[in-house]
Amino acid sequence: MTPHSSTLRHTLLALAITAAFPLQAMAQDGVPAPAAPAVQAGPGQLETVIVTAQRRAENIKDVPMSIATLKGDKLDTLTAGGADVRFLNSRSPSVSVESDYGRTFPRFYIRGLGNTDFDLNASQPVGLVMDDVVQENAMLKGFPVFDVDQVEVLRGPQGTLFGRNSPAGVIKFDSAKPVFKTEGYLSGGFGKDGMKNLEGAFNVPVSDTVALRFSGQTQRRDDRVHNPRPTGTRDFEGYEDSAARLQVLVKPTRDFTALFNVHARNLDGTATLFRANILKQGTNDLVDGFDYDNYPTDGINRQHLKTKGGSLRLKWDLPGVTLHSITGYEKLDFFSRADVDGGYGAVYAPPMGPGFIPFVVETADVIPNHKQISQEFRAESSARGPLQWIGGLFYFKEDIQIDSIGFNSLAAGNPQSPFYATQNQSSKSYAAFGSLNYTVSDALKLRAGLRYTTDKKDFSAKRVEATTAGPFKLNDTSHNISWDLSGTYVLTPETNAYARIATGYRAPSMQGRLNGLADRPSFAGAEKALSVEAGIKQDLFDKRARLSLAVFQYRVKDKQLTAGSGAVNMNQLINADKATGSGVELDFQANLSDSLSMTLGGSYNHTEIQDKKLFVQSCGNALNNPASGCTVTDPVGPFRGTAYIDGNPLPRAPEWQTNFTLKYSIPLANGEFYAYTDWAYRTSYNFFLYEAKEYKAKELLEGGLRVGYKWDRYELSAYGRNITNQIQSLGAIDFDNLTGIINEPRTYGVQFKATF
Known about the structure:
This protein is mainly beta. The protein has 3 helices and 39 strands. The strands form 8 sheets. It has a 22-stranded antiparallel beta barrel. A 5-stranded mixed sheet has the order 3-8-9-6-7. The relative contact order is 0.14.
């Protein structure tokens, strides 16, 4: 155990013991008292947090599952400086976010469950819901976060009420909605590397029955990494990223509401930099003299993403029942080209810099055609009584085309026609769902949910070379029944205990980035999760503090995994017999005084792949050049260049994570001065399914600071992100050389905000 993990373990245990003392005292009093009615927060008290985790507005304390929220000052601070959705990484217990595509294609992990697949049709076990519409493709999941009321993190399977493919959990974004008054804000800032950030919202009532809200954001950063060579792209990591949202609320009667939402994004920038041979062989250290600003390459690097979509949410309040209709549409257009080998060299000879690079790898991934539509009908009871219910139908359809194109900047005839692969996938999902909530007594509430799902996928892939291979076709229809049972028990007016058992499901996956005429698409069957958790949620010190503590254990049968393909830039889908996980999560927040407030979150996740016969190809760079290959520590598999992975943790799954914020504020002159610091820590994790010394992330502690002054309707602040400038490899490419992907360096700037 490291000193950091020991400290975190002791912190979690201390807070858990603190929480247990009131429970022990309560148990001696006999029958628990009924829950106290909701009251307005008093001086120094924390505000009540309302969530919609069960498709109803509820006090977070009353919801029988592990939930965290981000909003207000914390959300503003984490998104300062042009941060994209990866700001969520390690900022909530058991949550990780990373990307091999930069500001696009974020990959989410909850409790260690995620998907490292870089193919553009890869599904993820973490669902993302934006304004009640599921965002299936990973490119949609990176939509900028602005004018958002609240982010909810729902941990554990969410199979009965939300979208699809969510056996690990759901991350839910709720935008600020139109209201019948004139209000808004405008925020602008600039910072290091020419960072410019402009964000605003304008809300206006058009009439007594119509209100609209327009919000938008534009972010720009100059290039900050330079290529000293005369070939390829010369400057990198600059971008222009703009997004906007228009919402129109129509309320012609007291009982009917229609909310229209249209939104779009336009990103121009560069793809992730794959940096050749920056890892020391035999360690996970960066090479001596590593220079973040220097990137010698012979390749072209650029990236474009355009998304647009809309939704219509209708709500009718009828006697005893409320009806909902949610219609969603999303479309995207994507192009990303990068020098995957991360170096440079001569044509028709092994490239030799920096370090050994056995062959040129320069590719572009393109989504020229994409369309997603979804429709949900839902009815819920609204009459008073001990029994409450929800029932609904859900439909989803996605069509996507993916082209993978080979390039060689030092050769004629780019793209390297006729060398490319193409994939086409059509997915449909149908579901019927329902839940029952029953109040047994003032102290006990029970819930049961059920969902039936049918998923259909049609897939084809082909490789075009001197002759065409394919198209190779796959199709599959799968059916699933997901369910959950949970209950909340009021131990005291301040303390609720809960327990939950739930199942989740992810539809089969297909992939076909073919490498040669003999290749075939790969297929992974459906995975099914079973999770058990229990916890307490408690108000402390006259509601000046709040604590949530959960313990959990899960099993995923036929776990879908993504294996590398040895010495080539490919992935292969496989199923493991099962993967297991167990751990603890803690969320704590407190107003320590009138001037000082804090939050503390922590999690421990132990994950394990369990399949004694499963082996994968490992360390492809060692096959190309053993002298510069990686150092595999797993048992050797049955064939050269393979390793058994039974007993390994899931990739990108740190065991320990913690986050901490502290805010100090005091009245000053006619306003308020504040200082806000935030820190996130996580332990090491494996980059891939197999273990190698080079392909293991180091422990990482990153911090931020924001200081500012508020007066009247104005705010001026200065911020810093990754203020200690911790730089290390977060990911790698293992088929070519010791290539690393680096985290964001330190940045800083100032912001000004005006509200009206």
